[in-house]
Design goal:
Tscrpt_reg_HTH_GntR, WH-like_DNA-bd_sf, Arc Repressor Mutant, subunit A, DNA-binding, WH_DNA-bd_sf, 4 helices, mainly alpha, single chain, 55% helix, 114 residues
């Protein structure tokens, strides 16, 4: 779900992170080129470069000059840990409050449906 209030580069970063967490890209995999990803997302290549740069700054991707950008070793684990922390700190509390407010029980939630 895209949050239109976020800057485009952060939305692109979320798409890349989700692709890594979903296993589309694993540690050591080559990411799409800036231009290829920009074309696929209908985004400006400079904006994609900014999203990629933020991953590089965080040590989640490494650049091999003349070859491309690769998911760094341990990036999947580190992303998962960061997303779990963000979920538990920011997303879950209002969801839990709504569950209590509505009187839902675990049986009411089909946790296996996607």
């Amino acid at each position: 779900m895209a949050d239109e209030s976020k800057p485009v580069y952060l939305r692109l970063r979320e798409i890349i992170a989700a692709s890594i967490l979903d296993g589309e890209f694993t540690d050591g995999d080559l990411l799409p080129s800036v231009r290829a990803f920009a074309a696929a997302q209908g985004a400006n290549p400079l904006t994609v470069a900014k999203a990629y740069q933020s991953f590089q700054d965080d040590g989640l991707v490494v650049v091999k000059r003349g070859v491309g950008m690769f998911v760094s070793d341990g990036a999947t684990r580190r992303l998962r840990e960061a997303e779990r922390e963000r979920f538990l700190d920011s997303v879950w509390p209002p969801v839990a409050a709504q569950i209590r407010r509505l009187g839902l029980r675990i049986d009411d939630l089909d946790l296996l449906k996607a």
